[in-house]
Amino acid sequence: MKYPILKIERLDYQTPLTDICLFERVFVYSSKGLLGLIADDFGSIIPPIYEEIIPAFDFHFWARKNHKWKLYNFKNIEINGIEFKHVTTFCNEYACVSRNGNSFGFVNRNGEIKITDHYLKGKHLGKSLFAVGKNIRGQVKYAVIDLQEHFIIPFIFEEIPTFTEVVLLLLKRRKPLREWLQL
């Protein structure tokens, strides 16, 4: 079998095309303008068939082909088969995704949609808290919701808050124990 001439883009865990870290001992390579994955020992190769590749989580990656993103494992098998127009690397257990490029939601590591995509871009903050955006009177504001899409904090943030900022705000707003117990 004749293999194509491979060009290893970089060997310091970054690719110049995506400018984000890859997994240890796995590199993106290009051939004829397309991207694939290769192990540092050349033992595991995913052919260069993708327009773009970014890490998803351990031994999984997002790959764009025909302008659509899908989630794959390192055996190049699709996870769930849902196509997205925009994806991000997983933060803890969830990734912010968009099927249409305008509204965003979140998927879990099985590729299942857990927060429906009707928000502006957001971020998983930790535990079951998510920051989601909304255009309010021409200004983007962010709120914090849980996995059931219940609002924990309304749209008051001008930028995506950190988990620490959310916890501090919730502690400041907490009710006295007597009020929680309705005594």
Could you walk me through the main structural features you see in this protein, from its secondary elements to its overall organization?
This protein has 183 residues and is mostly beta strands. The chain has a domain at 1-83. 8% of the residues lie in helices and 46% in strands. The chain is built from two helices and 14 strands, in the order ββββββββββββββαα. The protein has helices at residues 163-173, 177-180; strands at residues 7-8, 26-31, 34-39, 45-50, 52-57, 60-65, 68-73, 86-87, 95-98, 104-107, 113-126, 129-136, 139-145, 151-157. The strands form three sheets. The chain has a seven-stranded antiparallel β-sheet, covered by helices on one side. It has a four-stranded antiparallel β-sheet with strand order 1-2-3-4, with no helix packed on it. The chain is elongated and about 60 Å long. This is WG repeat-containing protein.
**Order of strands across the biggest sheet?**
8-9-10-11-12-13-14
Rg (C-alpha, Å): 20 Å
User: Kindly, what is the distance between the CA atoms of the first and last residues, rounded to a whole number of angstroms?
Assistant: 78 Å
What class would the helix/strand composition place it in?
Answer: mainly beta
Could you state the order of secondary-structure elements as H and E? EEEEEEEEEEEEEEHH
Please tally the β strands and state the result.
14
Report the major sheet: 7 strands, antiparallel
Shape: elongated
Percent strand equals over 45%
- The stretches of 5 or more residues where confidence is low (pLDDT under 50) are 1-21
